[in-house]
Design goal:
The protein is elongated. It contains four helices and seven strands. The chain has 169 residues and is α/β, with parallel strands linked by helices. 44% of the residues lie in helices and 18% in strands. It has one domain (6-139): Response regulator (Rossmann fold, 3-Layer(aba) Sandwich).
């Protein structure tokens, strides 16, 4: 069974009441795809940017559009620490490791580690759940940021009012 990862979004200015559109989740893949995971992702409805170098990874991370996940694959024997650092510094999206070699990595560097020979149905579901959880956290963070801005504005207005009242007395 394949899971389609599509997100329902509401348009800011709908032309019809309740109108919505479907938008595919965007993932960036770094490394060599020897296990055909990219085709599995595309068939599951993901938009996939495949990056074979750090320069391509940097360009993909800076491209417009929200990145929902960054996937790294060590099929060639290593995942450059620069790739992980670059992804962490440019996006808050989760980072998923597909280890292929016998090398060990610190699991603290990744949000999800998918062992070799994990069936696509399992890791696709884990990935979809991770993306949904990440989007919820980012939306809540945005809400808190907006609320903090309102409170800063209100606080500034109260300070100005207080200064004017002190000046009058």
């Amino acid at each position: 069974m394949m899971y389609r990862c599509q997100i329902r979004i509401r348009r800011k200015t709908p032309s019809y009441a309740g109108e919505s559109e479907t938008m595919a989740a965007r993932v960036i893949h770094f490394g060599v795809d020897q296990c055909y995971r990219l085709s599995v992702l595309r068939r599951a409805g993901y938009d996939v940017d495949n990056c074979g170098s750090l320069i391509q990874l940097c360009e993909a991370l800076e491209a417009t559009g929200e990145t929902d996940a960054v996937m790294v694959n060590d099929s060639d024997g290593s995942v450059p620490s620069q790739a992980i650092s670059l992804a962490r510094s440019r996006t808050s999206a989760p980072i998923i490791l597909f280890p292929h070699s016998i090398r060990t990595y610190s699991t603290a560097d990744f949000d999800l580690v998918v062992p070799c020979f994990t069936p696509p149905e399992e890791w696709l579901l884990d990935l979809a759940n991770l993306i949904v959880d990440s989007r919820v956290v980012r939306a809540y963070s945005q809400l808190l940021t907006e609320r903090a801005e309102v409170l800063r504005s209100e606080s500034a207005a109260v300070c100005k009012k207080s200064c004017r009242e002190r000046a009058r007395s």
